[in-house]
Write a structure and sequence with these properties.
The complex is a heterodimer.
Chain A: E1 13-15, E2 21-22, H1 38-45, E3 50-54, E4 79-83, E5 89-98, E6 111-117, E7 126-129, E8 139-144, E9 156-160
Antiparallel strand pairs in A: 1-2, 3-4, 5-6, 5-8, 6-7, 8-9
Chain B: E1 18-25, H1 37-50, H2 58-62, E2 67-72, H3 75-78, H4 83-90, E3 97-101, H5 107-121, E4 126-134, H6 140-148, H7 164-178, H8 182-196, H9 210-214, E5 218-221, E6 223-224, E7 233-242, H10 243-249, E8 254-262, H11 287-295, H12 307-320, H13 325-328, E9 331-333, H14 339-348, H15 358-362, H16 379-383, H17 387-402, H18 406-410, H19 413-419, E10 446-452, E11 458-466
Parallel strand pairs in B: 2-3, 2-4, 9-10
Antiparallel strand pairs in B: 1-7, 1-8, 4-7, 5-6, 8-11, 10-11
């Protein structure tokens, strides 16, 4: 056996008083699966918005789910995919302007994060407004980042619907 | 729609009574290089064993322990898996069994609940509930990202990477629907940070004004910087036991009742449902509100309320035989991670009917001297949010209040001096202020505390009642 060598990098001492604090750098890559929801993310790259729906005749909830689920939480049976017809128009349920995001943010700030009510959905999914000033009740249309897709939920965005005025 | 089966609404019942007898805290700071987490755990443990007027020697009490439960929110922060084993060893408690608990921001509450279950079931006669968080290993922005991974990573986290962005839309919708003013939100921040001013443990106490809060930097509009809690380093613990042990250990035993509720991690998935009524609420009182919601495509609990909190209160009040919380409780400690989440909870736990939450603040009821003061500890906004410790800290503050020990644990200059010069206060020590006042609620007998996770994914409510 050869003599053991140190092959790492010495930890940098950040401070010595009142306690010694050293740097411990990390670079990590996780290999994350979208599992049975992969179709949803693949769909975004093809300008398609897929939802899931329970097809069990005995189940009381027939409304659509986005975020989708592979299995129905009410009857536990598998759900089926259904593409939303275009144009996909929703209404802003509530929103916030992101001024101070967390580390690694992939959108330029500030921007508006919006919660969108879409006809036929049982859910009110979260998204972002590509441009414009939101208000509760504002009509918005789904858009898709097909050029240089991010392969994440950020490939779905919303834009104000033109020629629609607040009544 | 959530539909309850017949058994879902069963009221929990301990197999035998559960008592809380002692608590321990550390100071809370944004950074605390002076101590590692095990050392902080020992500080809280010793305060619990040595300073709570227990009738047995600290080591004798330790010798009665059968079980320990440890809460820590995120391994990312502490960067130490199985930290429970390190702390347990450091406290010298091997080979007693211990269990680690993780339920987000409600970790502390769930930790106490788990320990209580051990007492109630007979697994243990004396159990330790302890929680901690060390959030200073990473910078604030990275910390915010870590916390945001407690939103749905596929559909929510990347949309801001900060938890304030999941509460801010709730603040906007609540304000729009129930006409909540920014000033009322700001008053919560002013109140809780002021109460922290009287606590030697507090991290970000301050005498602020409503104007100051409203002029603060926007984090996620409409939430401003002073409306958001801090990240903290610190530990809290509570000693639970059987009735027989309680009377053996203390002259001030307090009976504990506790229950929890949950709801979807994503607010998006919260479907309209009927409102489970609390004991003092009248059947039909929300019919008109619910009808209006349905007509407008709105929903309960929606973005305004928390089913998990409502469900926890539904069970806990009945478990403790509380008919009207506003009349029967003497104080509450709520999970004020954000001003808005504090306000939302007033409706959920029945301090006001839904839609009238602001009145709990505006009426003065929520203040020291008011009908039901809240967060006299300084809460999360003023004193701490070392996540795994928080739901225990709030319980300990309730315990000390109903034991009549607020002054003992908050007014003693020795405690102030011991923690004056550490963490970010190094070199600019935080001493007991000359204008310190006691926030002891006179003759407090019964208190409730709420521990809350996610955007309401897990909530516990504990109720402590003075037995003598």
């Amino acid at each position: 056996m050869k003599k053991v060598r140190f092959i790492g990098k010495p930890s940098k001492v950040e401070q010595e008083k009142p306690g010694m604090v050293v740097e411990w750098p990390r670079t990590l890559i996780h290999h994350h699966t979208y599992g049975q929801l992969s179709k949803f993310f693949e769909g975004l790259k093809e300008e398609k918005l897929f939802a899931t729906r329970c097809v069990n005749p005995a189940c009381f909830n027939k409304r659509l789910w986005i975020p989708p689920r592979a299995d129905c939480p009410d009857c536990h049976q598998p759900m089926e995919w259904q593409e939303l017809p275009k144009p996909i128009i929703g209404e802003i349920f509530t929103f916030t302007r992101i001024e101070y995001p967390g580390e690694g943010i992939e959108l330029s700030t500030p921007y508006y994060q919006i919660d969108v009510r879409i006809p036929g959905l049982t859910t009110i999914p979260k998204g972002y407004l590509l441009y414009g000033e939101p208000y509760i009740g504002m009509k918005v249309k789904a858009g898709f980042r097909t050029k240089n897709p991010t392969n994440t939920i950020l490939d779905l965005y919303w834009v104000p619907v033109k020629n629609w005025s607040k009544k | 729609m959530i539909k309850f089966g017949k058994g879902n609404l069963r009221i929990p019942k301990w197999q035998r009574p559960v008592y809380a007898v002692a608590g321990g805290l550390t100071p809370y700071r944004k950074k605390m290089p002076e101590y590692n987490i095990s050392e902080l755990a020992m500080i809280a443990f010793r305060q619990m064993l040595e300073d709570n007027d227990l009738k047995l020697d600290p080591l004798e009490v330790k010798g009665l322990l059968n079980y320990a439960v440890y809460g820590a929110f995120a391994d990312h922060f502490q960067d130490q898996l199985l930290c429970e084993a390190k702390v347990h060893d450091y406290l010298g408690l091997d080979p007693l069994y211990n269990t680690g608990i993780k339920t987000g921001g409600a970790t502390g509450g769930s930790t106490v609940l788990n320990a209580a279950m051990a007492i109630a079931s007979g697994y243990a006669d004396v159990a330790l509930a302890m929680g901690w968080e060390r959030m200073d290993e990473v910078d604030t922005k990275t910390g915010n990202f870590y916390i945001s991974t407690a939103a749905c990573k596929d559909f929510e986290t990347r949309l801001a990477r900060i938890y304030a962005s999941y509460y801010a839309p709730m603040a906007r919708r609540f304000s729009w629907k129930y006409n909540l003013s920014e000033e009322t939100r700001a008053k919560v921040a002013v109140k809780n940070r002021l109460y922290a001013y009287y606590s030697p443990y507090a991290q970000q106490a301050g005498k602020h004004t409503v104007e100051e809060v409203l002029q603060g930097k926007i984090i996620c509009d409409p939430l401003r910087v002073l409306e958001c809690c801090a990240m903290s380093v610190g530990v809290a613990c509570m000693l639970l036991c059987s009735e027989e042990m309680a009377y053996k250990l203390t002259d001030k035993p307090c009976e504990l009742f506790m229950a929890g509720g949950t709801h979807t991690l994503r607010v998006a998935d919260r479907r309209h449902m009927e409102i489970p009524l609390l004991p003092h609420e009248i059947p039909g009182m929300y019919d008109a509100v619910l009808r209006e919601m349905e007509e407008k495509g709105d929903r309960w609990p929606g973005f305004e309320s928390f089913l998990a909190a409502r469900f926890a209160a539904y069970l806990a009040y009945r478990m403790a035989g509380i008919q009207n919380p506003l009349e029967e409780l003497d104080l509450v400690e709520l999970h004020d991670a954000f001003t808005i989440s504090d306000i939302q909870t007033y409706g959920d736990i029945g301090l006001r009917p839904y839609g009238q939450e602001a009145d709990y603040i505006e009426s003065g009821d929520a203040y020291f001297g008011g009908k039901l003061p809240s967060n006299l500890s300084g809460g999360l906004l003023g004193t701490m949010h070392a996540v795994g410790a928080t739901g225990i800290f709030s319980g300990v503050e309730c315990l000390w209040q109903i034991q009549g020990k607020y002054d003992k644990f908050h007014g003693d200059p020795k405690i102030w001096d011991r923690w004056a010069d550490i963490g970010e206060y190094k070199g600019k020590p935080r001493r007991k202020p000359d204008d310190w006042i006691s926030l002891q609620v006179p003759n407090a007998r019964q208190a409730a505390w709420v521990s809350h996770a996610g955007v309401g994914s897990h909530v516990t409510m504990g109720i402590l009642r003075r037995a003598i």
